[in-house]
Specification:
The protein has 171 residues and is mostly beta strands. Helix content is 0%, strand content 43%.
Length: 171
């Protein structure tokens, strides 16, 4: 049978899902993570990431509707929600650290697309990464850690193409 998980729209979400990614968790269960997007409405404004959990790949329960642009969406190292929206810094040219260092505020996120995750043995946590477009049309692949797919650490820069060129999950 084809199983279509129910999307529970909350926060700023569209109620539609795209770019699903499924992987086995450390405990043998499964997580599915997806972009919040309804392309019939817009290609922007997709600031939420959905997460579902399953023990058997048939029965799914949505556990997270993470709006990366929301105040308090991420937590610090003690688990306390960060005040305001998260920020990330990176250089315009990753090969030239004397280039302009940008700070991008996740409150200006236009799109959070194509999330995926891996288990990071050193961190003993899942590294969730996605393409994030900011209002400046600057795009970067960013990552955040989680142990439960409910709370997420302050996002960090993973990659941005030099000279402000496009950086997507497919490039």
């Amino acid at each position: 049978p084809v199983v279509v998980p129910q999307v529970t729209a909350a926060n700023n979400s569209s109620g539609c899902a795209r770019d699903p990614y499924i992987a086995r968790a450390q405990d043998g269960s499964f997580y599915m993570i997806a972009t919040d997007m309804d392309a019939s409405e817009s290609w922007s404004g997709d600031t939420c990431i959905y997460v579902w959990h399953s023990e058997n790949l048939v029965d799914w329960v949505q556990i997270t509707d993470l709006d990366v642009s929301a105040s308090g969406a991420f937590v610090d190292s003690t688990g306390t929600p960060l005040a305001g929206t998260a920020t990330v810094q990176f250089f315009d040219d990753v090969n030239d650290t004397s280039s302009y260092l940008r700070t991008n505020d996740f409150g200006t996120t236009l799109r959070a697309w194509a999330p995926q995750f891996i288990w990071d043995e050193d961190e003993q946590a899942y590294m969730v990464y996605w393409s994030n477009y900011f209002a400046s049309w600057r795009c970067a692949v960013v990552y955040s850690y989680t142990t439960d797919f409910i709370t997420f650490t302050q996002p960090q820069y993973l990659y941005a193409a030099p000279n402000n060129s496009s950086t997507n999950d497919w490039q």
